[in-house]
Amino acid sequence: MTMQAANRIQRALRTGGGLSLGAWQMLPGSNHARAIARCGFDWILVDCEHGNIDDAAMHEAVAAIAGCDVSPLVRIPANEGWMVKRALDAGAHGILVPLLYTADDARRLVASAKFPPVGVRGFGSPFPMGTFNNESSTEYLQQANDSLLTIVQIETREALQNVKEIAEVPGIDVLFVGPFDLGNNIDRPILNGVVHAELKEAIGRILRTATDCGKRAGIYCTSGDQAKMYVDQGFTMVSVAADMIALPAYLTDALGKARGTKDATPQITGPYGR
Q1: Global pTM?
Q2: Has residue 2 got a pLDDT over 80?
Q3: Given 32, 50, 59, 93, the catalytic residue
């Protein structure tokens, strides 16, 4: 089996209807990562931007997720070459990168994520082969450029304005909508869970641009119902749940039911819960 075949999210995106469903991990722990991965998702995103996950915890989560035949993705905190390298060297099947602004930012990201001659990624980590098929280091070097996903978040006003140019950059695989920051940055924030019409149009524009440019479109969701809505619109990389939404919601609901409280489940109004 090639590395591409072992990359579950890439396999999902490239076959059949091209749909892949995933979850967000914000809390550290390999057992925690495995518990989420065993729920049947195609991918788990290890959030090193807003989550409580440092470099060591990221390494552990990536290996645990891959051990469940699920693709580990890593959201790095910024578009920095050394952060790209740490995530991919840990064995991530792809990276999600926030706060891009221009096509030059996208080109710089691709260079950081690809080995020469395509890019400038350094070679030498002993870890990533273990999250695929235990390839040799030579096989990893030869296959990695075509087997790892480079995913960019479209969440700034500038990125929205430059979305076509960003989508056209070779090596960018997925345009991923961060709806909360995108709403903030176009002065149409999501307040009390309400999505403004102009934000809906911006989200639709990103989807159309990705499709027109032959790329995939993804989006962060806060519930299964919301995820299904965006799947029906044509998004193919869709988050379904986050641990920091699921845990408090379930525990609050269970406690409320035990107390006899009606409608105990908290309303989700922010990116990670209340």
Answers
A1: 0.94
A2: yes
A3: 50
